Automatic annotation (TrEMBL):
<keyword id="KW-0560">Oxidoreductase</keyword>
<dbReference type="InterPro" id="IPR037951">
    <property type="entry name" value="MopB_CT_YdeP"/>
</dbReference>
<dbReference type="InterPro" id="IPR050123">
    <property type="entry name" value="Prok_molybdopt-oxidoreductase"/>
</dbReference>
<dbReference type="InterPro" id="IPR041953">
    <property type="entry name" value="YdeP_MopB"/>
</dbReference>
<keyword id="KW-0500">Molybdenum</keyword>
<keyword id="KW-0408">Iron</keyword>
<keyword id="KW-0411">Iron-sulfur</keyword>
<dbReference type="InterPro" id="IPR009010">
    <property type="entry name" value="Asp_de-COase-like_dom_sf"/>
</dbReference>
<dbReference type="Pfam" id="PF00384">
    <property type="entry name" value="Molybdopterin"/>
</dbReference>
<feature type="domain" description="Molybdopterin dinucleotide-binding">
    <location>
        <begin position="639"/>
        <end position="695"/>
    </location>
</feature>
<feature type="domain" description="Molybdopterin oxidoreductase">
    <location>
        <begin position="109"/>
        <end position="481"/>
    </location>
</feature>
<dbReference type="InterPro" id="IPR010046">
    <property type="entry name" value="Mopterin_OxRdtse_a_bac"/>
</dbReference>
<comment type="similarity">
    <text>Belongs to the prokaryotic molybdopterin-containing oxidoreductase family.</text>
</comment>
<keyword id="KW-0479">Metal-binding</keyword>
<dbReference type="Pfam" id="PF01568">
    <property type="entry name" value="Molydop_binding"/>
</dbReference>
<dbReference type="InterPro" id="IPR006656">
    <property type="entry name" value="Mopterin_OxRdtase"/>
</dbReference>
<dbReference type="InterPro" id="IPR006657">
    <property type="entry name" value="MoPterin_dinucl-bd_dom"/>
</dbReference>
């Protein structure tokens, strides 16, 4: 671990620091040579899709596109370390429970299937046949298939996801919680009824033509580094880049492109944002409504578009005119002049794109906020024409594709009809559990078998204490995974850990080496093929694992499971038979870079109830948890805590303990806070505090308390009253009952909390 220090970083994002960091991580993972060779195949026409993020590749370049955090994701998978049954079995699970998330994953790639042995409290080696027999026995023993829950994380390929949802539906349930429930679910929920597609409408070509790109609640310098290349190019052309973020994020300010020889040699860099608005955490709805108000007041409307393509305009502007400015100013944390300035930048542009990330989605009113983004776009006809549109920037590299493949707890009946017809069975119709619902069901004893296709449910989900109780109540927990993580340590009465191939590895089946497909954030579907030798000879591919699990469990299935898993082209033919947009799938992916799925909104065809793009009217929310808690606790200072990613992690996978751009080294338990707020608390930067979250439902008098201990106070450029800290360490503070309306996404970006000095020896130790 690096030396612990807090030291302001004043360089650009990217640059030599990024190259140095990659060299360090490759070395750490023991993959200096193989890793470097592997990196050169990331996002190449004949290579694998980078497991880092869902940002699209520019026409699958023939030259290697450098990305620091993509490189770390690849290095983490291509690591030389091996978590054999001997390594994992050397400790009891009670002992493993003491290890950090970092230490768990640092054991390396899992090599063989393992089963939990309650007698010794250890995982031990098992065979694949025994593992599938155990799963089959437990699933068949359940009196109701709805007692089984099947989670998916977003790295799973289309082929694996399609087989997985088919298996689960033939088994008899729609219980498909997935990482999307905690991520961009509100984007889909907001977009589908308003513009007819639950996805973004733009492509990279639009980024070349936009005059104004608005970036809300997103930190691309860390989470989508390749996006900085597009933003930088746009800025160089003279486009305006307008950022809305409570924190000043270095990646949104300045960037030195490692691709650019001159910038690297001269230590030069390029500005990214032309304008930066540091609004309050959760202030976006008010800000966006204010921007819409200004657009209407200035009469800067595309009246032809509104008349021809939209519905609900009159109701929307009538309510908007009634909306006083004062509450908008108060809730946004910006001045009226700033809100007007932001709107004027938007008005001045001929073509605008709005991008957003988790800073928008993980709030109580996220769906309304995203619909306010849609309103803003509709007012000026910024949908369905070049250089304009909506751009929710997805997280996991195939999270969008998994949904397209049917990983959804509320499937459309047309999809189920077709699935049943193609495979000759009657799919279940009842909607299933999402992530919050699944935790609740396990807590209530209604969910008894938990199967996870990737991910780290125990660490990624809200309300850690409740989630762990839920998982521990299960009869059986099954994790299909590449690395050892928290979810394997917090297990059911019986437990299996089943290791699979990663994307960078050669996937050899009966008919030869196989490629899989993924869909990026801009609906481009393309092939991905690994080139490294598998981490162990015992690994199964995800499609083969699902096929064998299905063949063992479903005695009357007519699906040729093993034949499908022996030839992924055959799976793709079935996908094409079920999903009309995939007609000719196997031919289409032969084109370098693949093909784009049809996006009706980008053609100005509106597949909505009214047949038009829909304005949505939303009043200012009055039911905010922070306000409710502050009202009941007038004697203490209630802060709004937002939880985010450091530069050295991939969700729950912790690569290291530095957050270079925010000046944090060797620490993860930090809380960013305004210097004046530290003073008001009678504390100083460098002091240790405990964080207590307070939560009360609308109609309940009880205030629930949750606690996470020992965080270092870091003075930071963040609005007063707002705090930021890293996830997953802060997940114990997120109440299970607190989620966004409609989408049910945990509100991990607006948690009411109070701070208190940490007493006890740990503070001294850690400092
Ligand atoms: N290297 C790396 N890449 C990743 C990931 C990773 O962990 N590591 N995760 C992947 C996944 S699954 C996802 S979903 C994406 C996540 O990518 P992001 O959406 O960038 O995720 P966060 O780090 O949660 O950061 C959200 C940003 O929102 C800001 N923010 C916080 N609260 C608010 C608010 O109320 N309003 C506004 N306007 N801004 C706010 C924060 O300051 C931060 O800059 O990245 C993907 N890519
Ligand atoms: N407080 C708070 N909580 C959050 C968030 C937040 O911003 N704040 N963000 C939320 C978001 S946006 C998301 S997407 C979720 C993420 O939730 P998850 O998707 O469940 O979590 P990850 O950390 O991405 O999962 C990492 C694990 O995936 C496994 N894995 C990696 N590659 C593969 C593979 O190729 N195959 C298989 N089978 N397994 C693999 C490894 O075991 C690794 O440990 O967390 C959410 N939780
Ligand atoms: Mo995500």
């Amino acid at each position: 671990m690096s030396e612990k220090k807090i030291a302001l970083y004043d360089g650009p994002a990217g640059g030599w620091g990024a190259l140095k960091s990659v060299a360090h991580h490759l070395h750490e993972q023991g993959v200096a040579v193989k890793g470097a060779k592997t990196l050169l195949h990331a996002n190449q026409t004949d290579g694998f899709d980078c497991p880092g993020c869902a940002w699209p590749d520019r026409d699958h370049r023939s030259t290697f596109e450098f990305c620091e955090n993509g490189a770390k994701a690849v290095a983490a998978e291509a690591t030389a370390r091996r978590a054999t049954p001997e390594v994992i079995g050397a400790k009891t699970l009670k002992e493993w429970a003491e290890a950090s998330d970092y230490e768990l994953e640092a054991t390396g790639r899992l090599t063989e299937p393992m089963v939990y042995d309650a007698q010794t409290d250890r995982y031990q080696r098992t065979t694949w046949d025994a593992a599938f027999a155990l799963i089959a026995r437990e699933l068949q023993a359940l009196p109701d298939p709805n007692q089984a829950i099947f989670y998916t994380s977003g790295r799973t390929s289309n082929e694996a996801a399609f087989l997985y949802q088919l298996f689960v539906r033939e088994y008899g349930t729609n219980n498909f919680p997935d990482c999307s429930n905690m991520c961009h679910e509100p984007s889909g929920s907001a977009l589908k009824p308003t513009i007819g597609v639950g996805k973004g409408t733009v492509t990279l070509a639009d980024f070349e033509q936009a005059d104004c790109i608005l970036v809300f609640g997103q930190n691309p310098g860390t989470n989508h580094p390749r996006m900085l290349g597009e933003l930088r190019a746009a800025r160089k052309r003279g486009a305006r880049i307008v950022s809305f973020n409570p924190l000043r994020e270095r990646g949104l300010e300045r960037f030195a492109d490692p691709q650019n020889a001159l910038e690297m040699a001269t230590l030069g860099d390029s500005p990214i944002s032309s304008h930066y608005f540091q609004l309050k955490v959760g202030g976006d709805f008010a800000l966006l409504k204010g921007m819409c108000k200004r657009v209407v007041e200035r009469d800067a409307l595309d009246r032809d578009f509104i008349a021809q393509h939209t519905a609900g305009f009159d109701g929307f502007i009538a309510e908007l005119r009634e909306q006083p400015w004062e509450p908008l100013v108060e809730a946004s944390g910006l001045t009226r002049e700033q809100i007007e300035q932001a709107a004027d930048l938007y008005i001045a542009a001929e073509r605008s794109i709005v991008c957003w990330g988790m800073g928008i989605t993980q709030h109580r009113h996220s769906v309304a906020t995203i619909q306010m983004i849609v309103n803003l776009l509709l007012l000026r006809g910024n949908l369905g024409r070049p250089g304009a549109g909506a751009c929710p920037v997805r997280g996991h590299s195939n999270v969008q594709g998994d949904r397209t493949m049917g990983i959804y707890e509320k499937p459309a009946s047309a999809f189920l009809d077709k699935l049943g017809e193609v495979f000759g069975f009657e799919p279940p119709r009842e909607h299933g559990y999402d992530t919050v619902g699944a935790i609740q069901a396990m807590l209530d004893g209604k969910g008894k078998v938990f199967v996870a296709m990737g991910g780290n449910f125990a660490a990624a989900t809200p309300d850690t204490a409740a989630t762990w109780r839920a998982l521990r109540r299960c009869e059986l927990t099954v994790h299909i995974t590449t690395k050892f993580n928290r979810s394997h340590v917090v297990h059911g009465r019986q437990a299996l850990v089943l290791p699979v191939l990663g994307r960078t590895e050669i996937d050899m089946q009966a008919t030869g080496p196989q490629g899989v497909t993924v869909e990026d954030s801009m609906s481009m579907v393309h092939l991905s093929a690994g080139m490294n030798a598998p981490a162990s000879e015992h690994l199964l591919s995800e499609p083969m694992l699902v096929a064998r699990m299905a063949a063992a469990t479903l005695e009357h299935s007519r699906t040729p499971w093993l034949a499908l898993a022996g030839d992924y082209a055959a799976i793709r033919d079935k996908i094409a038979a079920v999903l009309p947009d995939f007609a000719g799938f196997n031919d289409k992916i032969k084109a370098p870079g693949g093909f784009r799925l049809r996006n009706t909104a980008s053609e100005r065809e509106w597949v909505t109830a009214s047949g038009r793009a829909q304005f949505s009217t939303h009043a200012m929310p009055t039911d905010l948890a922070v306000a409710r808690v502050a009202d009941r606790h007038r004697d203490v200072r209630v802060f709004t805590l937002t939880t985010l990613r450091s530069h050295d992690q991939y969700n729950t996978t912790i690569y290291g303990h530095d957050d270079r751009y925010r000046g944090v080294y060797g620490h993860r338990r930090v809380v960013f806070i305004h210097a004046d707020d530290i003073k008001d608390l009678g504390l100083k930067a460098g002091d240790w505090v405990d964080i207590t979250s307070l939560y009360c439902a609308d109609d309940v008098a009880d205030v629930q308390q949750r606690r996470a201990e020992r965080f270092l106070l870091v003075a930071y450029d963040i609005p007063r009253g707002c705090l930021a800290s890293y996830y997953p360490e802060t997940n114990p503070l997120v109440p299970l009952e607190s989620f966004s309306l409609v989408a049910r996404t945990p509100t991990s970006k607006s948690i009411p909390v109070v701070l208190s000095p940490h007493a006890g020896p740990a503070a001294a130790d850690a400092a």
